[in-house]
Write a structure and sequence with these properties.
This protein is mainly alpha-helical and 81 residues long. Helix content is 46%, strand content 0%. It is built from 4 helices and no strands. Helix 1 (12-25) crosses helix 2. The longest helix has 14 residues, at 12-25.
Length: 81
């Protein structure tokens, strides 16, 4: 396995957490970061699982978007240019 170097900027809080875990386990920070990235990759789940928080709940959406007839006035007619 060939390893490549990547540089990232982390908040002090996150870096301190990673350093603490690395010290406790007696491994490098890089090892902790690789493990976390692999864990995130394996627990990604389906596309639905990853974007479920972005989807509007059915009960908050209108039952029929065409229910407002004023919005449909002129729909399908040619526009004047």
């Amino acid at each position: 396995m060939s390893l490549r170097t990547v540089t990232v900027k982390l908040q002090d809080r996150l870096l301190a957490e990673i350093e603490g875990v690395a010290r406790a386990r007696g491994v490098s920070r890089s090892e902790i970061l690789r493990a976390r990235l692999e864990q995130a990759e394996s627990s990604a789940g389906s596309v639905w699982d990853r974007m479920q928080d972005l989807v509007i709940d059915e009960d908050r959406a209108p039952a029929d978007l065409s229910s407002n007839k004023a919005r449909l006035r002129g729909y399908g007619r040619s526009r004047s240019r």
